[in-house]
Write the structure tokens for this entry.
Amino acid sequence: MFKLKVSNSKLLRDMISAISILVDEATFRIEPEGIKLRAMDPSRVAMVDFEWPKTVFDEYVNTEPTKMCINVSELLKLLKRAGKNESVELSLDEQTGKLKITILGKYTRVFQMPTLEISEEEVPTPKLTFNVKAKVTTDGIRDAITDAELVSDHVRFEADPEKLVMRASGDLMGATIELKKGSDALLDLEVTEPAKATFSLSYLSEIIKTGGASSDIATLEFSTDMPIKIDFQQSQEGKLTFYLAPRIETE
């Protein structure tokens, strides 16, 4: 059984919101040292890797390792009812087997939602070698992605030792967004080998928008025509990382 309490309801809401863009049903592993989730979207194009150690929580009680599968969209609806100065408690009702969400603030609200059948699939961590590592501000990359969306549904990332370039082209229009090393948006750039890869903007935009809600800095890692890894730096301990498969272009 477990009981988890977070005083910063926005932090919890942002995390669940980020997870919800890829998966409807999420199986969380609640372990003595913290809570974890690794899941792929139904089309298996993108993956989320989330981890919160128990130190992130104001209260963390876990008597034994537990797996819990829930509908994240439904959970998000309930968490949106919590104000920014209100606390949220998550616990499992032993009698009903339902997840209990308690919002503590101006008054106390207790919601219950069913847990779902647990998926037995274990999603492994991708074993990838990256030639490009770029540390960017989430505001900067979000603006760049928004610019690319004006002209296309996909964007090509290109990197050399001096700059990160995003190119988007549609039937009528094109856009080139250049982030130079040392600029306000591109904080650091390491390139062992120039690389380029193309990604779907529908996925990328959602990942950057929701993942960046709780983070000011993101690290992008990619190689030519390989998946991109997007790691959002957390204000506290923990991990929120996405992987997105490339769109392979034919000549």
Summary: The CA atoms of residues 143 and 187 lie 15 Å apart. The mean pLDDT is 93. The radius of gyration is 20 Å. The domain at 132-244 is CATH 3.10.150.10 (DNA Polymerase III; Chain A, domain 2).
